[in-house]
Amino acid sequence: MGRAVTVATCALNQWALDFEGNLERIFKSIDIAKSKGARYRLGPELEICGYGCSDHYYESDTLLHSFQVLEKLLESPATQDIICDVGMPVLHRNVRYNCRVIFLNKKILLIRPKISLANAGNYRELRWFTPWSKARHVEEYFLPRMIQEVTGQETVPFGDAVLATKDTCLGAEICEELWAPNSPHIEMGLDGVEIFTNSSGSHHVLRKAHSRVDLVNSATAKNGGIYILANQKGCDGDRLYYDGCAMISMNGETVAQGSQFSLDDVEVLVATLDLEDVRSYRAEISSRNLAASKVNPYPRIKVNFALSCPDDVAVPTCMPIQWRHHSPEEEISLGPACWLWDYLRRSKQAGFLLPLSGGIDSSATACIVYSMCHQVCLAVKNGNAEVLADARRIVNEETYIPEDPREFCKRVFTTCYMASENSSQDTCNRAKLLAEQIGSYHINLNIDAAVKAVVGIFCVVTGRTPRFSVYGGSSRESLALQNVQARIRMVLAYLFAQLALWARGMPGGLLVLGSANVDESLRGYLTKYDCSSADINPIGGISKTDLKNFIQYCIENFQLTALRSIMSAPPTAELEPLVDGQVAQTDEADMGMTYAELSIYGKLRKIAKAGPYSMFCKLINMWKEICTPREVASKVKHFFRMYSVNRHKMTTLTPSYHAENYSPDDNRFDLRPFLYNSSWSWQFRCIDKQVNAL
């Protein structure tokens, strides 16, 4: 009969518009799948062109090159005797669709367009694609001539159909369709589909992985079946990190789990499963069987091929496993580190430069780079030839082998403490000690001469000398003097990034890393065009609270004892004069709110979609034990004033790793005005009315 089917799914580190590299990785995944006995191979969403092409989807070149890659796949002996399921954009009757192209032995079996498009948060699929709205309907698709010459087919089925092989029935979902309330797998399962596939382009968010796993397992818990999920992994050209987690589930339980974070460009999961387990599981669910008897059938594409062998009684099948989730601290250690590695190797730069202040944010950024160095050494130790080749190119040494993370860190990571007369010796010592423990090439410099020169120009031109508020100056003067220091640090960071390696007789340039956290960005507690202005920022989507927990994780797991004093010190910008040699300025006093409060404001503003009045209404209950309604009103008003006054800074925010769903990233995720009426007169009046009533 044939009952044991062997299927493969994968996580591929595809890169937008890297058609050659994408093709190589697809071929490699097919080779691995076949070598492990798989008869079906599933790949990530839009894997041929890369998911993050954005407005390049409008270009006919993107469609042309996708078909050229498909031609290479179809004509290759590597794709023989295995059903291959690949993703690419397809233009059908002048409408662009996000599609799966499923083929076997030089014949296209089905082109299946996406039904539910992702169009929230970071996703804008409706901008480039149209959803297929004709349920259970198939049309003829006329193939381009280059494909006709390979397949001998003039037309192929295009639409919402399933594949009927000799031994089972398969149905496809694409990413968002799993998350939709009316997921196709529900009706397909009732119509006898036994294997569901899902090709995803799903990005990492802290604490999100369990949601995806739960959805996959629940898809087959009520209805029975085998669910196979493939996902993109890595940085394919923007702020998102796609976190793999390819998986295979059967009857509500995980049977194969892929890694969430790794430097392997190609990861393939293979599982052998017994179809009779699906059939017996479904047989006793009477409610399912009653619903199945009334379901509208899907068009079936007959495939003269089997996923099982006729005599497979002795073939061992996979057993359920327990999914292993990372802690948020592990996620911060691994996700941004892998994102940095992709960015470094694909930008063809020689390393990173970080202004290291001795505070929590820049120290956390340094620890993420150190974690990246750990991941590189571990990957090389495990035989990853691609990582070794990239490392050798980055350090410009053909025989180099990265074995010690500290030694590799010295080669690719430069840290720079930029002191001023307002800097304390404590932060200088903390930065130096941390640099020694992670192994970075550390520079100490003083910016006072540059600050005096810039301020001196202003004094000569205007005849006025600005002073800090502690010396009798106004708040305007004090803020301007603080901003000069911050902006000079940005200028010097880029100067040293371009020339530090040149001064050491080494080739290449460095990428500048920023280190503003998500809460500071939300509040606008940063100088526009200061050293938070960088090439990329690995912590820009992470909260201060999570960063503190991550620092504690690094103390325990990397033995970085220098972080203990950094953890215990109050966060400070060190831009105002010292008092008796000690720091008098602190972040939370400057902001007029705590970092913990900022996280709450951020989640209410973005995730709960709360304006000033709604936020007030929620907080008077959340904080009823610690604040009066009048105090809550004052806090909410202060937050919205500061948020709106500083929103313009988000338009120039350094591209940051997306890790939180309350990120204020103005580029694509959090679309809002940057010129507000910051008095919020109507909204605040509604709050005042409620306060008086209470």
From TrEMBL:
<feature type="domain" description="CN hydrolase">
    <location>
        <begin position="5"/>
        <end position="275"/>
    </location>
</feature>
<dbReference type="InterPro" id="IPR014445">
    <property type="entry name" value="Gln-dep_NAD_synthase"/>
</dbReference>
<dbReference type="GO" id="GO:0034354">
    <property type="term" value="P:'de novo' NAD+ biosynthetic process from L-tryptophan"/>
</dbReference>
<comment type="similarity">
    <text>In the C-terminal section; belongs to the NAD synthetase family.</text>
</comment>
<dbReference type="InterPro" id="IPR036526">
    <property type="entry name" value="C-N_Hydrolase_sf"/>
</dbReference>
<dbReference type="GO" id="GO:0004359">
    <property type="term" value="F:glutaminase activity"/>
</dbReference>
<keyword id="KW-0547">Nucleotide-binding</keyword>
<protein>
    <recommendedName>
        <fullName>Glutamine-dependent NAD(+) synthetase</fullName>
        <ecNumber>6.3.5.1</ecNumber>
    </recommendedName>
</protein>
<dbReference type="Pfam" id="PF02540">
    <property type="entry name" value="NAD_synthase"/>
</dbReference>
<dbReference type="InterPro" id="IPR014729">
    <property type="entry name" value="Rossmann-like_a/b/a_fold"/>
</dbReference>
<dbReference type="Pfam" id="PF00795">
    <property type="entry name" value="CN_hydrolase"/>
</dbReference>
<dbReference type="InterPro" id="IPR003694">
    <property type="entry name" value="NAD_synthase"/>
</dbReference>
<dbReference type="InterPro" id="IPR003010">
    <property type="entry name" value="C-N_Hydrolase"/>
</dbReference>
<keyword id="KW-0436">Ligase</keyword>
<dbReference type="InterPro" id="IPR022310">
    <property type="entry name" value="NAD/GMP_synthase"/>
</dbReference>
<comment type="pathway">
    <text>Cofactor biosynthesis; NAD(+) biosynthesis; NAD(+) from deamido-NAD(+) (L-Gln route): step 1/1.</text>
</comment>
<keyword id="KW-0520">NAD</keyword>
<dbReference type="GO" id="GO:0003952">
    <property type="term" value="F:NAD+ synthase (glutamine-hydrolyzing) activity"/>
</dbReference>
<dbReference type="GO" id="GO:0005829">
    <property type="term" value="C:cytosol"/>
</dbReference>
<keyword id="KW-0067">ATP-binding</keyword>
<dbReference type="GO" id="GO:0005524">
    <property type="term" value="F:ATP binding"/>
</dbReference>
<comment type="subunit">
    <text>Homohexamer.</text>
</comment>
